[in-house]
C-alpha cells in the first residue's frame, strides 16, 4: 500500500488531521482542495502543528516533522491529485449534493482498485455512492474529531461494497495507528453518534427536570463513567460489574428496565434548557474563538497523553 499515495479531498479541519495521520505512518499524501488558499493555509498549518507536536513530545510516528512534511503535497487539480492514488479520503463539507458531485468526479477519474472513502458524519453510504460504477470500492470511514488524537474510525459499507474494500480499509487504518470498527449494516447516525446522542438527550432531560446542574452532569461523565470508558466499553464494564454479562442482567436487569422506562421523550434542543446549558458552559469556557481554541488545545493535549497511557497499558 505504501507504494501509492493517499489523496485527501478537502483541506479543512478533518482533511488536515487525516493528512497528518497518514504522513505520520510514512504514506505519501496529496491534499486536494478547490480553494488554493485553503491548500496553502493547510500546508502552513500542518507544518506548524507538527513542529508544536514535536516540541511537546506528541508527534505521531517515528519520522521527523520535516520528513513527514516532505511526504505531503497540495494541489487544486483533481486529475493530477489522483495520479498514483491507492486510497482517497474525502473530507469536504457535510452536504449531500456536494458529496454526490465529488464522488461522481472521483468515479470518473479513479482507476478500478482505488478505494473511495468518505469522512461523512451522518450521510448514508446509500445516498452518497448508489449508481457509481466503482461502488464496490466505496466506503464511509467516519473519524472522530480530531482523528489525529482520537483513533476510532467507523467503517460503513454500501450494500454493494466489496468485502475486500472493507478489509483493505480496515488494514490501512490499523497500519496508520487508528482503531477501526465495522458497521455490519448502515443505520442513521452510525454507532458513535447514536450512543453520543443518547447521552446528550438524557443529560438534557436531567437539566430540564432540575436534577443536576450542567456542570455537574459533565463531571459525572469526565470523573465517573468516562474514566472507565476510556479503557472499557459499556458492555465490558457491565461484564466486570457482575460475574459476567449474564449475571449483570440477572442482578441489575429489573432496576435498569425501571430506570429506562422513566426516560423522557426526545428533547427539542432549543429554548430555555438550551440557554441554561449554554450559559453554564460559557461561564466556564466563554464561547468565543479565543477561549474555545485554547480549550480545544488543552483537550487535544489531554487526548494525546491518554493515547500514550493507553499504549502503555
Ligand atoms: P471544513 O469545512 O473544515 O473543510 C471542508 C473543506 O473542503 C474546505 O477546505 C473546502 O474548501 C473544501 N471543499 C469544498 N468543496 C470541495 C470540493 N468539491 N473538492 C475539494 N475540496 C472542497 O469541514 P470539516 O469539518 O473538515 O468536515 C469535513 C467532513 O468530515 C464532513 O463530511 C464532516 O461531516 C466530516 N467530519 C467532521 C467532523 C468534525 O467534527 N468537524 C468529525 C467527523 C467527520
Produce a short descriptive summary.
The protein is α/β, with parallel strands linked by helices and 313 residues long. 54% of the residues lie in helices and 13% in strands.
Question: In words, what does this structure look like?
Answer:
With 313 residues, this protein is α/β, with parallel strands linked by helices. It has 13 helices and eight strands. An eight-stranded mixed beta sheet has the order 3-2-1-4-5-6-7-8, with helices on both faces. A hairpin with an 8-residue loop joins β6 (138-143) and β7 (152-157). α1 packs across α2. The longest helix has 24 residues, at 289-312. The mean pLDDT is 96. The structure holds nicotinamide-adenine-dinucleotide (NAD). Nicotinamide-adenine-dinucleotide (NAD) is lined by residues 9-15, 32-35, 38, 91-94, 98, 102, 119-121, 142-143, 145.
**What's the story with the biggest beta sheet?**
8 strands, mixed
Shape: globular
- What is the number of helices? 13
Distance between the termini: 29 Å
Contiguous runs where pLDDT drops below 50 for at least 5 residues: none
Average pLDDT = 96
What sequence of helices (H) and strands (E) makes up the elements? EHEHHEHEHEHEEHEHHHHHH
**Strand arrangement across the biggest beta sheet:** 3-2-1-4-5-6-7-8
Number of beta strands = 8
Amount of beta strand = 5-15%
Helix content: 40-55%
What's the Cα radius of gyration? Answer: 21 Å
Which cofactor or ligand species appear? nicotinamide-adenine-dinucleotide
Oligomer: single chain
Structural class: alpha/beta
